[in-house]
Amino acid sequence: MLKPRLNSGVSEIRIDVQAEGGPPQLHNEKSCVLTVNSNCSLAAMIDQYSRVSLEEEHKHLDLLAQRLKAGPPESIAYLMSYAGERACIFESEWRAKRARNYLVENHSISTSRIVTVEAGFRKDWTVEVYVQPRVDCGPLPNPTLRAAEVCIQGRCGERQ
């Protein structure tokens, strides 16, 4: 459903998804509203990491924290988290929260400056990092696999 707002360049799209055939631990329904602002200019991805150790992930996040601290105080980090083709339950959410918690606990970055996005699935788990100067614009997910192409098993944290 598309609802244009008069003269603002902003449209909203409501997305309702129902999944079938997943493990009972997974939610089978999810909804969200995607806001599209034609007046926004989106920043380019500044970093991406995939299949790295936790120590290497922290190095990527340390660089992000430095960038946020050096930039304008209204800038926001977007962490686009993709689960892999062989994923654990809630993998993209788990990885995004782990990254956000590291930034908050180790660099005192406010949670209001970090947006985590469960972005879907890719061959390998991946986190894309963006920094936007304005709150009203954000990157769009770009998954490369459909949920039906993914094998989900086990709980996150039991394996890397």
Summarize, please.
With 160 residues, the protein is of the alpha/beta class. It has 2 domains: 1-39, no CATH class; 42-155, 60s Ribosomal Protein L30, Chain: A.
Explained architecture:
- It is built from two helices and nine strands.
- The protein has two domains: 1-39, no CATH class; 42-155, 2-Layer Sandwich (60s Ribosomal Protein L30, Chain: A).
- Mean pLDDT is 85; it is low at 1-7.
- By secondary structure, the chain is an alpha/beta fold.
- Helices cover 21% and strands 37% of the residues.
Throw out a few tags for this protein.
single chain; 160 residues; alpha/beta; 60s Ribosomal Protein L30, Chain: A; 2 domains; 4-stranded mixed beta sheet; 3-stranded antiparallel beta sheet; globular; disordered N terminus
Q: Which fold name fills CATH's third level, the topology of the largest domain? A: 60s Ribosomal Protein L30, Chain: A
Number of domains: 2
Radius of gyration: 17 Å
Q: Supply the helix-strand structural class.
A: alpha/beta
Helix content: 10-25%
SS element count, helices:
2
- Class of the largest domain in CATH? Alpha Beta
Please state the overall shape, judged from the principal axes of the Cα atoms.
globular
Mean pLDDT: 85
